[in-house]
Amino acid sequence: MTKNTMLETLASGGTALGAWMMLREPLVATVAAQLDYDYVCIDMQHGLQDFGDVTAMLAATSGGGATPIARTPWNEPGMIGRLLDAGALGVIVPMVNTREEAERAAKACRYAPEGFRSMGPVGAGVRHGSDYFAKANTEVAIIPMIETAQAVGNLDDILSVPGVDTIYVGPADLSLTLGLGPGLDNADAKFTEAIDAILAGCAKHGVTPGIHCSPELAAKRFEQGFRLLSVGYDFGPVTAALRNDLKTARAAVTK
Question: Could you tell me which of 92, 91, 93, 84 has the C-alpha nearest to residue 136?
Fold first, then answer.
């Protein structure tokens, strides 16, 4: 089976840097996978992709060395199973707030007896090898999102769920549930205390902390202890480049 190099990097104490796909463009996923990113995440929660787009984008990552993962729209076993069957080697699961929700996410990613994932990896079996079934329970990453005040309050319960070796902080939603404005970072003490609590909980339970990030925040998050960082994006840079090019050209032709 294809090795989950993202998990190998994290297990060896390294830091995994990822590209985040919100647009339904397989070519961009191909480019990201062929660069030196450790993973490419296709976002079905807030991205524009439907399931057909996701399957095409997962296929587009096959020629590169980045681990293909996806964010599911919700903690729903049917969609989690479909993403894994299509070839994702990890699933980021949003709004996991309790132990029970973390257990549901973990079991949806595992075949029996560890979970209740149904057998039928049509895309994954072709893409990742004939021994997929034998190794999927150890090669597929389960990544619950910690992104609410409720989840921070239930941190010990969530992080102790078998199979949860990595978590992913959503800083914007975490800020909202703390009564703050959304953003990738926040100087308010309530936010910094929540981040500190998450990092301390991960250290206690041996779980790798990840976070939605930016290139500008990467150094800060790394120094804090985060080891899974999404830093490359398709939508924002494309928008910025179009805006800047128009500004430059408009200035050149306006007298």
Answer: 84
> What's the predicted TM-score (pTM) here?
0.96
Phi and psi at residue 232, to the nearest 5°: -115, 135
Map out the domains of the chain with their CATH numbers: 5-253 (3.20.20.60)
Placement of tokens 């921070």 in the chain: 152
Split at pLDDT 50, 70, 90, the class of 63 is confident
DSSP secondary structure letters along 191-251: HHHHHHHHHHHHHHHT-EEEEE--GGGHHHHHHHT--EEEEEESHHHHHHHHHHHHHHHHH
Q: Which residues are catalytic?
A: 46
Please answer whether residues 28 and 240 qualify as being in contact, where contact means their C-beta atoms are separated by less than 8 angstroms: no
Tens of pLDDT, residues 150-193: 999 999 999 999 999 999 999 999 999 999 999 999 999 999 99
Element of type H or E holding 141? strand 141-146
Do 42 and 68 contact (CB within 8 A), yes or no? yes
Q: CA-CA distance, 108 to 190, in Å (whole number)?
A: 33
